[in-house]
User: Which sequence fits this backbone?
C-alpha cells in the first residue's frame, strides 16, 4: 500500500471535525506523515465488547465518539438511558454507561445534549449499540491516536468478529460518522 497521500479537503475536514468533538486530542497528525495506523470502521463495528477487553492497554485506547452533527438530541436517548430505566432522568440507576462517562445537559425543550468523558470511557460500546437501535447512530467507537500504543498487530483487530479494524494512513487517522456529511458541506 502506498502511504503517499497528499493532504486534501477531505482530510482537512476530518481533522477539523475531530477537533470540534472536544474532550481530548482528536486532531490528526501531520497529513504528510508516512505512517499507517489502526482504526475502527464504525459501519462495520457490531459493538461486541472486545474493544474494552482485548486492547493491550487498560483502560482501552478505544473511546466513544459523538457525531453531534447527526445526533437527534433526543430526550429519550437510547444511548444514555437503560432500556428499562426506572425513570427517564439523570439518576445513576437509569444510565446505560457502566462508568458514568456520558453527561446529559438540557438544551431547550425537548432537546438534550450528550457529552463523553474520555477519561471515564472504557470503549465498551454499550451506548453505541443503544444509540444505533433507536437513535441516529451518532455514537461510535474510535481508537484514540494519542493513547494507542501502535502495536504491530492490534490485539483487538485479531479477535474482532466483524473485521472492523483496519490500517489507515495517519493523515486520515479517524473514520468519523459524519465525514461524508462534512464533505458535502453540510
Ligand atoms: S472488536 Fe470489532 S466489532 Fe467488537 S467492538 Fe471492537 S471494532 Fe466493534
Ligand atoms: S457506554 Fe461504554 S463506550 Fe459508551 S461512553 Fe460509556 S464506557 Fe464509553
Ligand atoms: S494497536 Fe494496540 S494499543 Fe492500539 S487499540 Fe490495538 S491493541 Fe490497543
Assistant:
Amino acid at each position: 500500500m502506498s502511504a503517499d497521500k497528499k493532504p486534501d479537503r477531505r482530510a482537512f475536514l476530518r481533522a477539523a471535525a475531530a477537533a470540534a468533538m472536544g474532550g481530548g486530542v482528536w486532531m490528526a497528525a501531520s497529513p504528510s506523515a508516512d505512517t499507517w495506523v489502526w482504526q475502527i470502521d464504525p459501519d462495520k463495528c457490531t459493538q461486541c465488547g472486545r474493544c474494552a477487553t482485548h486492547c493491550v492497554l487498560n483502560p482501552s485506547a478505544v473511546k466513544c465518539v459523538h457525531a453531534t452533527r447527526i445526533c437527534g438530541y433526543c430526550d429519550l436517548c437510547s444511548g444514555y438511558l437503560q432500556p428499562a430505566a426506572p425513570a427517564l432522568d439523570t439518576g445513576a440507576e437509569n444510565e446505560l454507561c457502566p462508568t458514568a462517562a456520558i453527561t446529559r445537559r438540557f438544551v431547550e425543550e425537548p432537546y438534550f445534549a450528550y457529552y463523553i468523558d474520555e477519561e471515564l470511557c472504557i470503549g465498551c460500546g454499550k451506548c453505541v449499540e443503544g444509540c444505533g437501535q433507536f437513535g441516529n447512530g451518532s455514537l461510535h467507537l474510535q481508537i484514540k491516536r494519542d493513547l494507542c500504543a501502535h502495536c504491530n498487530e492490534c490485539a483487538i483487530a485479531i479477535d474482532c468478529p466483524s473485521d472492523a479494524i483496519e490500517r489507515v494512513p495517519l493523515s486520515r487517522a479517524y473514520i468519523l460518522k459524519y465525514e461524508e456529511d462534512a464533505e458535502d458541506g453540510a
Residues 55 and 116 are 20 Å apart (CA to CA). The radius of gyration is 16 Å.
